[in-house]
UniProtKB/TrEMBL annotation:
GO terms for molecular function: ATP binding; ATP hydrolysis activity; L-isoleucine transmembrane transporter activity; L-phenylalanine transmembrane transporter activity; L-valine transmembrane transporter activity. It comes from Rhodosalinus halophilus. This is ABC transporter ATP-binding protein. Keywords: ATP-binding, Nucleotide-binding, Transport. The keyword Nucleotide-binding applies. PANTHER family: AMINO ACID ABC TRANSPORTER ATP-BINDING PROTEIN (PTHR45772:SF7), CONSERVED COMPONENT OF ABC TRANSPORTER FOR NATURAL AMINO ACIDS-RELATED (PTHR45772).
Amino acid sequence: MSAAESFAAGNAAERLGAVSTGNALELRGVGKMFGALAAIEDVTLTVRSGERRAVLGSNGAGKTTLFNCITGDFLPTTGTIRLFGEDVTRFPAYERIRRGLRRTYQISLLFNGLTVADNVYLACRGVSRGRFSFLRPRRGDTLVARADELIEAVHLTASRDTAVANLSYGQQRQLEIALALAGAPRVVLFDEPAAGLSPTERAELVAILNGLPEHIGYIIIEHDMDVALRVAERVSMMHNGRIFKEGTPEEIENDPEVQELYLGGGDE
């Protein structure tokens, strides 16, 4: 079995922990105020376990604020957030991580002076029981093997021992996906992973996302509709802090109102 196949299968414990029925995320009436400004209002959203969802909208629609509320970077002003059936509305970010939630950010957050392998190993170590140990990994360390599986899954095996500072921008974005996949996540939030990528790098990103194991659901914020519609099963459109339309990629792409507001250069 190759490293990629091993990653897709996962070990027995991870498979048992990853199998879920029902909904991964349920938002009911979620809003976030900054003083008198409502960044998002009355957002109700349901994402099934293992579902791939895209959240689209123009700049200022409230997409990243929504992500911040889901992950615990911001606590919502109103509404409730449930993660795999558990109310996590007031939980700090690290408690949501323990329950299988991960995310990436628009700005790369990497250890530039370390190699690709070191970055991914530290991510795996950070969500393991031995994360506070000062012992160096030994030959045959399971976390080293797990890191190699993740590196292959994001198509960076050839750059395993390359310093992050020497990677292309697209490769750094691929590495961020590997970090987000450490520790058997059940749902991952990707915040504009295609931003700044070349057409070739975007094609690589689509291949990576479509190749993720079926039990890992994700929500992707993306301005590139071509990328979003190729990796999502359902799409939620945001405008002025609210979700105003949902549907399949085909329904959203052919919707006249969406074309007016998003494709046709509606108000920003």
